Amino acid sequence: MLTPYYTLEEMLEMIDNPNRSACITIFQDNEKLFKTAQGGSHNHHTWLGGYYDHVQEVMNIAIVLYNTLNSLRPLPFSLSDVLLVLYLHDIEKPWRYDLGDDGKLDNKPHMDTPEKQLIFREKKLKEYGILLTEEQKNGLRYVEGEGKDYSGKHRAMEPLAALAHTCDVTSARVYFDYPLADNDSWEGAKRIRK
Predict the structure, then answer these.
(1) Domain-embedded: residue 185
(2) Which among 39, 57, 56 is positioned nearest to 48, based on CA atoms?
(3) How many domains does the chain contain in total?
């Protein structure tokens, strides 16, 4: 049996409280923005609504990978944990870009560095009362890789972060044009906007 393709709203219900309620509120307060923002400027989900599609896609990938890996060997974190990290991993993106005269997205000055984007993300999480465990904080910090924190002497990225990173890379580099607007091969998958 194929894994169903869930809507973002359905997957928010899979996140444990107290963060479930906060995540739903973030979505409800910003639904129009989330469904119109692009997912990126160049590399993936660059269409209008691509942000929503990327977050929905990466969370669906997480369900498939989590269930498969957890059936082989128990994972030391829950599906809720990975869904939470992935829902929040790009939370700054809808506010991050301006559309330039050339039709390309440009970072807004207050979000033109990873450090400024992190500050915005942390303010947004605090604004909505998101409470993260240390493991979830590690997941959010390293969802896009260890970067300059990589070392052959210690592990910066913990297991939750590693799975979240795998899901994000799969969405952004393998399935960068998915879901398709029509006739996607994953039954139930489709873009929020045509």
Answers:
(1) no
(2) 39
(3) 1
Domain span at residue 165 reads 8-174
Say which CATH number the domain at 68 has: 1.10.3210
131-183 tens-digit pLDDT: 999 999 999 998 988 888 788 888 888 999 999 999 999 998 999 988 999 99
In a domain, 28, yes or no: yes
| Residue 1 in domain | no
For 79, list phi and psi in degrees, rounded to 5: -60, -40
Residue pair 121/92 in contact by the 8 Å Cβ criterion: yes
The residue length of the chain stands at 194
* DSSP state string for 2-61: PPP---HHHHHTTSPTTHHHHHHHHHHHHHHHHTTS-S-SSSS--STTHHHHHHHHHHHH
In a domain, 147, yes or no: yes
Burial status of residue 119 (CB atoms within 10 A of its CB: 0-12, 13-18, 19 or more): middle
- For residue 105, what is the enclosing H or E element? strand 105-107
Please tell me the pTM assigned to this model. 0.92
Specify the long-range contacts of residues 115-120, CB closer than 8 Å, at least 24 apart: 117/92, 120/92, 120/95, 120/96
